[in-house]
Amino acid sequence: MKVDKRHATHPDQVVGLGTEKLRSYYLVQDVFVPGELTLTFSHIERMVTGGAMPLGAPLALDKVPELTTGPFLAGRELGIINVGGAGRVTVDGSAFDVGAREGMYVPMGTAVVTFESADKATPAKFFLVSTPAHQRFETVKITLEMAKPIPMGSPATSNERVINKYVDPEVCRSAQLLLGLTALKPGSVWNTMPCHRHDRRSETYFYFDMQPDTRVIHLMGEPHETRHVIVANEQAVISPPWSIHSGCGTASYTFIWAMGGENIDYKDLTGVPMEALR
Questions:
Q1: Residue ranges of the chain with pLDDT lower than 70?
Q2: Minimal CA–CA distance to 104: which of 201, 45, 36, 177?
Q3: CB 137 within 8 Å of CB 174
Q4: φ/ψ of residue 24, rounded to 5
Q5: In this structure, are residues 188 and 158 in contact, taking their beta carbons and an 8 Å threshold?
């Protein structure tokens, strides 16, 4: 298991950062490593982002000495979305077959979660997000049909897309985690524009379904001090509460958004007018 740690940052620090330093603070490059489980711990909301890409024996998420003194989910909850081939997730002995773009919510107090691929030639790729929790809820398998698809945007603004809510009060209960998937239509490249911030929670974007030669220009920073991070396929960007989070791709793509903070109201945001951006 590979574990990385990221410290929280003040917005004033971003002003003088060069490209490599900015990427080292906010970009998670190696989400999926064949045959391994990876975790990146951020001191922002204590959110953990990771990936499990099993090839042979199941990969187990149980104890993580770098992050916890007991089971990883003793005081945490976990959201999962499979962006690869068919796989299986086993939660304390109960097995769930999880296909492409299906997800799961795993509650606080779970001892062991294991991940398997149905076929190592087309392995499952389980994207993982975990936040601290204060209450135990139920384990839920989430199909795409359950994910409350919401059409948004239009071809005229190059942002026609469908937002799918996976971990959300309308789908399943959680302590603070919100998790969803947004798929852009062919020809659309913009996400989350006009942009916004979340003063009461933080967010991570995970970009995928991209060709090797395409990129997303992810915008971040305070509205009057914007910065950008160039993101390749299957990479994630950590977004602090003081930062905008938006992006434009060189071709259409899909992204997973995950939020943690003091509430689970999806619409709790502070909009940023276009004229305020610099």
A1: none
A2: 177
A3: yes
A4: -70, -25
A5: yes
Q: Which residue has the tokens 């903070």?
A: 261
Backbone angles phi, psi at 17, to 5 degrees: -80, 140
Locate the domains of the chain by residue range: 2-276
Q: Alpha-carbon distance 65 to 3, whole Å?
A: 10
Q: Does domain 2-276 have CATH number 1.20.1250.20?
A: no
Residue with tokens 């003040």: 10
- Measured in whole angstroms, how far is the alpha carbon of residue 53 from the centre of its chain? 16
CA 93 to chain CA centroid, Å, is 26
Q: What is the pLDDT of residues 203-212, one digit of tens each?
A: 999 999 999 9
Pairing mode of beta strands 190-191, 178-184: unpaired
Alpha helices (H) in the chain, listed in sequence order: 11-14, 19-26
The structure tokens 């076929």 sit at: 119
Q: Is 3 exposed, middle or buried (0-12, 13-18, 19+ CB in 10 A)?
A: middle
Distance CA 141, CA 39 (A): 22
**Contact at 8 Å (CB) between 182 and 272?**
no
β-strands 76-82, 48-52 pairing? unpaired
pLDDT tens track for 18-58: 999 999 999 999 999 999 999 999 999 999 999 999 999 99
